[in-house]
Design a protein that fits this description.
Elements lengths: L11 H38 L18 E2 L17 E6 L4 E8 L4 E8 L12 E8 L4 E8 L9 E7 L11 E10 L9 E10 L29 E2 L10 E2 L3 E7 L4 E8 L4 E8 L11 E10 L5 E9 L4 E6 L13 H4 L5 E9 L11 E10 L21 H5 L12 H38 L22
Parallel strand pairs: 1-2, 10-12, 11-13
Antiparallel strand pairs: 2-9, 3-8, 4-7, 4-9, 5-6, 5-8, 12-19, 13-18, 14-17, 14-19, 15-16, 15-18
Helix pairs in contact: 1-4
Length: about 475
């Protein structure tokens, strides 16, 4: 075998030293790139941890509670303080009452919501659920609402919101300390485990002094609305919670919902407008023609502050079924209405529609149930009331961009401006740091090779130290 020929000006020892530097530099660069890839993977996967649907084939996607951990107290004296506009998470046991503190002024209306999230596959019975109460420090009952399961035994997110309305209610009008209590009711044979809770409260600013509340428009009426049938269907991917709800506008939207799933969609509805949503559950491959699920499919409507407006259900056995919700036209004056289905449509904003398929539907059909949402927002947008402050923090109001951006895609639980800014910053920081690291290593390697080539053959080659901050090259 012929001996290798030395390159003029570079001894074999020099070439070996240079090659060693190159190999170690490449290894260091590889380690840096692996770390950068891992960080980018973490940032990219954060949406999954934040509640974006994560189900595999055949596995129902579920609502994962988000927000700041809070531990509700057993008494009002120890109630931890909640802040407006912040989402919290807690857990609640059978028969337990969890109490949270809320500080209110004497001008802003307030809305506090709580949702219980039993795990899929657990048993729930008639009357199981949570009961919410908003109470003043002197014992006045501001508002209360029950969110119970019916006799169908279908596990799904269950909850609503309680309110303190300025100028409408006669009690709880003072600036004071208030408490939100959440009590869990349970049948003796139901799921004994703790349920996750997601909680939130928001403030609606008052109107400017002398501003008129206006008059409530005519309600939805009693006639059955006509579903929207014209237009090209679009694809939608419903979210698993309010935070990840897919934004949809007037049009026809198609999706699929597995048995045991609840999918959320949100519709921008402006002042003076009226929303009608039909949820058509299409035929599916029947595996048991004798199966009958009386409450097989469900459609629920919620206000921008997560207050349940109404829900409808229908039997489903694999043949087509349809349910709908038609909201009252949006008006500030609706808050004074006696009908809760009207009074809760009191502001412009994102209205949420939750589509549920009963877990037992899996006994009747194979796979997911095709769903077609027919969304129809009618009426011309009117001017907003003269609020004293910007009501956007409460989720009140919509803009032209909200409508144009409603393309059926699921939102991110970290889609708030602060969350997005933080993730963008981390992403750019990771990319910038990785780029600088790789470039610095490349310059270091090139300089080392040139220095090695310039040394006389009799000089002992020394590997130059790495750039400051990088540490020694790895030994592998």
């Amino acid at each position: 075998m012929a001996a290798p020929t030395a390159t003029p000006g570079i001894s074999m020892a020099g070439r070996g030293a240079s090659a060693g530097v190159t190999r170690r530099g490449i290894r260091t660069a590889a380690a840096a790139l692996l770390a950068l890839t891992a960080l980018q993977g973490f940032l990219g996967g954060q949406a999954v941890a934040d509640g974006t649907p994560t189900s595999g084939p055949g596995a129902p996607a579920t609502w994962q509670p988000q927000g700041t951990v809070i531990a509700g107290a057993a008494t009002t004296a120890d109630a931890p303080a909640m802040k407006p506009g912040v989402t919290y998470r807690d857990t609640i046991k059978v028969g337990e009452t969890r109490i949270y503190g809320i500080t209110l002024d004497d001008k802003s209306s307030a809305y506090a919501s709580a949702f219980a999230l039993p795990a899929p596959g657990t048993r729930v019975a008639y009357g199981d659920g949570i009961e919410l109460k908003l109470e003043s420090s002197d014992g006045d009952d501001c508002d209360s609402v029950d969110a119970h399961f019916q006799a169908d035994g279908a596990v799904r997110p269950v909850g609503s919101a309680v309110a303190r309305l300025i100028g409408v209610d006669t009690s709880c009008q003072d600036a004071n300390q208030y408490t939100l209590s959440v009590h869990r009711t349970s049948d003796g044979a139901s799921d004994p485990g703790a349920w996750p809770l997601e909680l939130r409260y928001v403030l609606e600013p008052p109107l400017k002094a002398g501003a008129a509340a206006g008059h409530a428009p005519a309600g939805a009426g009693t006639a059955t609305p006509t579903p929207l049938t014209s237009g090209t269907p679009h694809q939608a991917t419903g979210g698993t919670s309010f935070e990840t709800a897919a934004a949809v506008r007037t049009g026809i939207w198609k999706d699929k919902v597995l048995p045991g799933e609840t999918r959320f969609y949100k519709v921008p509805v402006d002042w003076g407008q009226q929303a009608t949503v039909f949820s058509d559950f299409s035929s599916a491959q029947v595996t048991d023609s004798g199966a009958y699920i009386g409450s097989g499919v469900r459609l629920a409507a919620y206000s921008p502050v997560r207050e349940l407006i109404d829900d409808q259900e229908h039997s489903y056995t694999g043949t087509p079924a349809s349910v709908y919700e038609q909201l009252a036209p949006v008006s500030y004056a609706n808050r004074a209405a006696d009908d809760t289905e009207v009074s809760r449509v009191r502001y412009a904003g994102w209205y949420y529609f939750a589509v549920s398929v009963h877990p037992d539907v899996a006994k009747a059909v194979s796979g997911a149930v095709p769903v077609t949402l027919r969304v129809d927002v009618t009426g011309s947008a009117q001017a907003a009331p003269a609020y004293a402050q910007d009501p956007k923090a409460a989720g009140i109001g919509v803009g032209a961009h909200d409508v144009s951006a409603a393309n059926g895609s699921p939102q991110s639980a970290a889609s708030s401006p602060a969350g997005n800014s933080a993730k963008r910053f981390l992403g750019f920081a990771a990319l910038g740091a990785g780029t600088v690291l790789v470039l610095a290593l490349a310059v270091w390697i090139l300089a080392a090779r040139r220095r090695a080539a310039a040394l006389p053959d009799t000089v002992t080659r020394q590997v130059p130290p790495p750039p400051p901050g990088f540490g020694p090259p790895p030994s592998w």
